[in-house]
Amino acid sequence: MENLQSIEQFEELKKGEHTIFVFSADWCVDCRVIDPILPAIEEKYADYHFVKIDRDQFIDLCIELDVYGIPSFLAYAKGKEVGRFVSKDRKTQQEIEAFIDGLKA
User: Fold this and answer.
1) Choosing a second label site near 88 at 20 to 30 A (CA), which of 2, 65, 72, 95?
2) Closest CA to 52 of 21, 95, 86, 98
3) Residues in the chain, pLDDT under 50
4) Is 31 among the residues known to form the active site?
5) Contact status, residue 95 vs residue 101, Cβ threshold 8 Å
């Protein structure tokens, strides 16, 4: 999964057709729990571009986007937010996939 490098890159990536930003942090236990399942999710949803955002490196972006819990997921299409799965709770593969499936509805 690609790691976000700059705010400018975020602004460009969110203009894409289907982009899902994954907010995470190295110290986040719940984020580490889902790390092993993310490659399978990326493979299953290959029409989406997944980008990891380090919460500590981009704290101002998190505040701007109201992302106060991690791991969290924000989906964008053509510059518009089309879905969010934001909370401080641990997420299962089924919950993440249900979120992505809901984007297609």
Assistant:
1) 2
2) 21
3) none
4) yes
5) no
